[in-house]
Every structure is written in C-alpha cells, then in structure tokens.
UniProtKB/TrEMBL annotation, chain A:
Protein name (Swiss-Prot/TrEMBL): Beta-ketoacyl synthase chain length factor
Classification via InterPro entries: Ketoacyl_synth_N (IPR014030), Thiolase-like (IPR016039)
Domain Beta-ketoacyl synthase-like N-terminal: 32-197
Matches recorded under Pfam families: Ketoacyl-synt_2
Signal sequence coordinates: none
Lineage: Bacteria, Pseudomonadati, Pseudomonadota, Alphaproteobacteria, Acetobacterales
TrEMBL record, chain B:
Zinc found in the keyword field: no
Pfam families in the cross-refs: ketoacyl-synt, Ketoacyl-synt_C
Protein name: Beta-ketoacyl-ACP synthase
Top-rank lineage group of the source organism: Bacteria
Organism lineage: Bacteria, Pseudomonadati, Pseudomonadota, Alphaproteobacteria, Acetobacterales
Domain Ketosynthase family 3 (KS3): 1-395
Amino acid sequence: MRAEVVGVAVLGPGLPGWAASAPVLAGAAPYTPAPVALPPPAALPPTERRRASPAVRLALAAAAEAAAASGLPPAGLETVFASSNGDGRVVGAILEALAAPDGVISPTQFHNSVHNAAAGYWSIAAASQRPSVALGGHDHAFAAGLLHAAARVAATGAPVLLCAYDAPLDEPLAQCRRTEVPFAAALVLAPPGRATPAAAACARLAIAYRAEPAPPSPPAATALDALAAANPAARALPLLRALARREAGRIVLPLLEDGRLEVAVAPC
Amino acid sequence: MRPLSIVAHTAVSAMGVGLAATRAALRERRGGLAPCDLPGTPEGIWVGRVPGVEAVALPEALARFACRNNRLAELALGADGFAEAVAEARARHGAERIAVVLGTSTAGIEQTERAYRRRDAAGRLPPDFDFEHTHDLYALPRYVRARLGLRGPALVVSTACTSGARAWLDAAALIEAGVADAAVVGGVDTLCRMTLHGFAALELLARGGPTRPCAPDRDGISIGEAAAFALLERPRPGARGGLALLGAGASTDGHHMSAPHPEGLGAAAAMRAALEAAGLAPRDIGYVNLHGTGTRANDAMEDRAVTAVFGPRGVPCSSTKGWSGHALGASGALEATIAALCIEDGLIPGCLGVAEPDPGFASAVVTENREARLDRVLSNSFGFGGNNCALVIGRLGA
C-alpha cells in the first residue's frame, strides 16, 4: 500500500511538537527529556475542555498538530486512533470503585472509559461527521493503526488522520502495563499525488505486512531509544526519525509475535 | 466497495449456541433474557447471559488467555463448523493471507474485576493475573488468530457499541487494499460489573423486566453477552445468490460523548454511506435491523434517522435486542449474523414483548414475526463517542 505523509506531529518528554522535535529526531540536536505539557483542547466546548483527561489532552494535541500541518480541514478527515490502554486511568478508577462494597461508579467516568473516548472528543472538537475508528494493539497499537490507516486510504482514496497515544496508568494497573511517560504521534496520510502545499513534512510510504517476526531490536543506546520501552505509542519513533531525517530508508515495526510491517520511506 | 462473500458464520448469545438455536429462537419468539443472578450487580435488572461460559476450556497451549471473553469466543469458534471452515480457507489462501478483525468494548475486564477483589494488603494485583492475555483489548484477536492457526494481520476495534459492526467494515478495507484475501470478522463482549454498573449509573437500564425496544413505555437496555464470527472473502465463481456483505458505512455525530444527536444526523449519514458503498437505493432494502437499544433517546433518534433515509413507513424495521439483550461491542456482529439468517429464512422478526410501537414513530416498526422474501437487510449500530456504523447484508447478484 502506498500513502503520502502530509502532516506529522509528536508529543512526548522532550518532544514538544514536530517543529521543535524534528532536529532532535534527526540526530542534529541533543535529546533532553522534559515534562510533557498537556494543554486543554482549545476546540472543545468549555465543559468538555475542563474535564478532558490527560489521555484525551495528549491525543487531541497531537491530532490537532498533524491536522494543522496537513492544511486539510479537520472536519473532513477520517480518523484512526490507536492506543494500547486508551484512557487507562479512567478504567482503573472504575475498577477501584467496582471493588468497593457498593460498587457504584460515576456516569461520566463510564462514558469516558470507552476506548474511543479520545476519538469521540476529537469528532466533537473538529465538528466532524467523518468515520472514526479506535484500535487497540498492546505493544503494537501504532503498527496496527498505521497498517489500518494506510488500508483505509487505499480503499477509500480519502485522507486519514492517524493518532497513536498512550498515557501513564495508576497503580495497581501500572504494575501490569509499563507506561511511564505520555507519548503521542500523529500522521495525516493521503493517497499518493494529493499532497497539499502546506504539508510540514512530506514523505511517500510503501507499507506491507509480512508474516515473519521482526528482527529483535538492539538494546536502547540513548534516552530517546529508551522511550519506546516506556510507552507503546513511542514504538512510532523509528518512523518519526526516518521522517525527520528526510532521507530514503526502510524500517520494520513488529506487529504480533510472528509478523511485521515493512515501511519504505522516501522524502517527496 | 466490492461485495465480500460470507463463507461461514456463527453466533452465540442468550438466544442459544450456534445458528440453529438462534434461528429457532427468532422463529418461535423465544427470548433469552432473564433476571440477573450475577453477584454484585444492580438490583432488578434482566440480562442476556450465555449459560455454561464458565465451563468452556481453552486449548492447553493457549491457557494464558483464559477469561470469560475468550471462553465465549471459544464457544462460538466451536459452533457451526466455523473453525473447520476457517481451516479450509487457510488451505485455500494461506494462513498469512487471512486477517482477524474483531470488535470488543471490554475484552477480558471481568477477569480484572476479579483480580481487584483479590489484591494483597499493599494493593497489588495477584501474580496469576495476566493483563496482556485477558484484560488487554488485543487479547481477543490474538486468541482467535492463534486458535485458528492464522498468520495474517490482526486488528482489535473498540468503538463502544459499534465495535462488532465496524470490524466488518475495517476488515473489508484490509481486503480491498490487498493486505488480506479473507478475514475472520466479528465481535465478542461478555457480562461484567463495569458495564452493568456503568449503564445503571447513566440510568439507562430497563428495570423489573426485559428491554422492550420501540415500545411507547420503553425504559432502557438489558445488557447481554455474545460472540459472533463470520469468514469473509472475495466472491468465488458460482457464489451468485450466496450471502455477502454488500456495503458498509460509518460516521460520527461530533455532538456528545454518550447522548446521540437528537435528529440522528450521524446515524442517517452512516446508513446512506452503507447504501452508497453497496450501490443501492433505500428501496432495495427489505428490512432494517435497528440498533434499537430500548432507551428513550436511542430509539427516538433512530426512528427519525430511519425515516429520514427510507421515508415515513418506508421499510419494515425492528430490534432483536428483546431476544439477546444489548451485547455492546458484539451487538453489531451478532446482528449482522441475524440479518443473514433473516435473509436465508425469509423472516422479519418483530420486536419481542412489544404490543404496539411508540405512536410517535414514523418508521414501520414491526412487532410480530412476518414472512417475507428478503434479499438485502441493513443493520445499524451506534455507540458512545457518537460512533455510527451500518452494514448491508444480502444475496450476491440478487
């Protein structure tokens, strides 16, 4: 499958947006971890904006940055949200409440616990009626999202906003699922030849699934490499780095124990 | 979109295990809802529980996946020769060319609820709790893929109550894009305290009796559990007349997290998108299987949306949730399978337990079973987050 990247975004520790992060990702500037600022989503109505959880803020900030970079109207973008844990903090709070003797839970927390909560808030913020899907995928949520977003572009011929995000969990779930820092990456993918002039980062991708395991990744040599182990969405880093370098290359992302995505990246 | 043959399918719900039990329940108007006897759940509610799920054993090599959701999946894989049909497809296409795309809203969270009740003094979860293979959403397609010996890509779709329908749409995209030649699609969701208490907190559960979608005095949802699977592939020569996914459409409301758009604009957009994908006009549809949850807001909104697309009294429609309950992330998959059974059996199943539909409704809600030749059925699913999905199931080339 072929698609063009017409918008890209990143938000993570020491990676405050694409423009500031591209030199770091390209290896031209040093990486300095720093806390992640999660702004309330400006496009949401005031009530929803105030209540937006860290996970929703994270996802919407990255999605908004990538959509803006593409120059395409956000309301016209189909979306694919990919996350290992969704709003896992809300899920954890509900599990905590259910374990109490009365088992009563908050109605707002319940509707915010659905895996497509961030996707739903995005549709409200963008005033969009376009199709939207939310995928899981454990460690491979980004790869699953990328595969599916590219498939939707190929099947429909319309651009797709892909947003992969994961935010830290509270104890005791945090014991079971390592997510130490917030991290989000977003891409706007479009059919080849339809890139917009406003595109911040432009690359052509050729994506294929192979039923062969990915080679084991080398041990993390730098603090930036180590992010991938600290957040499932940061498994997007090899692709983000390839985009930042603006060089032709080929990356491999694991998808399932015995499968992988092969992504050929070529700058436009 | 190009149609995809439904080569095999199966369903397990409170209506029964397998297609024969499901179609008998529909024909005999025998619902599967009963007063909820699960501990620690809201008072006075009815649920659609599948008997015997707890006793289903997973293959030893996959024991780490053991939880209510994967046990229910296993029960369905063993019904209607589904696993055998997938094995034949594997020989035809190759294991690596068959995708697994499944919907679930809560996966194995019932296992996590149990683990939370077994925490130690420091609040830690018990060491035997396997988050990755039970609680995690991806556990469902990973289990099914491993169980069926498949090697293609796997996706888990979790868009609340559209998950099981969206899985059909998303699998169709993978096949259309050439990533796979066939796909195991469907949805699995199981009863758990989280959804029972969650919908109770939203005051959306029917009390004192089963759900009665489209009734003038309807008072809410009965939650159910279900697993439904289908095997989709490009039509082979000679498939004419066979069951197929003819079209799929999706939209969002962009309106509110848990309340549908009152005029059903997003719902109507999904139905129109499904018809357009199938290259069909509203008059080509013989029956609409409603999302029909039995809440005041959903059924009223859906009536307006169906009327906007099909016209007043334009097409017979009904909800089958009076039989199965609302199986949440599995409901779209269960009802796609019910749509296929209705076509095969020439049956329009009227809403169960409803004497007359809401007199304010302009759509043609059916409340008794009706015999009719059906070539194409549209099935609706709507969910939190303003997510909407519609599927058109029909006979190829009819």
